[in-house]
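A quick aside before the break. I want you to see a complete sequence-to-structure record at least once, exactly as it would be stored in a machine-readable document. Don't worry about memorizing anything.
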Amino acid sequence: MQPSNQRTVVTIGNFDGVHLGHRRLVDAAVADANRTGADAVAVTFEPHPVCFFKGVTPETFRLQTPDSRDATLIGLGLRHVDRLTFDEALTAMTPESFVDLLVARHPGILGVHVGGDFRFGRGRAGDTEMLGALGARHGFTVTVHEAVTHLGETVSSSRVRSALRSSEMELVAALLGRTYAIAGDVAAGHGRGRTLGVPTLNLYPSGHLLPAFGVFVATIVTEATVIAAVANLGVRPTFADDPRISLEAHALTPFEPFEGAVAVQLHAYLRAEKRFEDTTALRTQIGIDIASATAWHAAHPRP
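That is the input. The structure line, written in tokens, reads:
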């Protein structure tokens, strides 16, 4: 919630993945806030309404964890992300009660930015026209934005999920407006990469949807450096001694080992994860994967 004397411009949505459609809302709210001397705020919901109503797990649905989503939103210029608890009480609210709640949490609200498909209140009874009328009653404006399209189709979280599940990483990046990345703290692995001559840094992602298992052209990004890499996402079926999903990234140029936070960008899908008969066959394939990733990076130099 914001201090009672702070003017705000609000955008409302789930913002799962923070794709180009979300970017349009956020950019408009930030510009509006800058023009009026207010703070730009996103109002969102936890858990995601689909997870609440259908009982699906974040690992099979969410494009980002809540913290990752909020960090992405803040990085776009928002001052604050206000998470509303999506529960029985919230779903039972009338549209009027929902707007009353919005005003109570953000008493200095000047304007609201939403997409054309925004619905609110019990049974999704409230639409953008009703929001505009309620806004006029409470003294704030409502701006409704058209959907963003890519290749003639609307950009949506559902479309991003579909592309991600099939590891269409170029399409995922186009829909998000940024390269897809898996972030986390570097963790200890089993040391097999070093034994095979291809040391890796290891992440164990959880809490969100992942691409199909396989090998990817990648980039390792830390606070200090950016390193071309190749990465394997999956469960290491050749060894099958650890059920955890891991992301193992091998740098294509030498670098000093490090600990802490890292993001591994996934640019292109090279092949599906598979089980090899022995480590010799695996090492041969790794050499092919490294050559493919090296060629990709050579053809796509960083600016």
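Two observations worth writing down. The mean pLDDT is 93. The longest strand covers residues 261-272. We'll return to this after the break.
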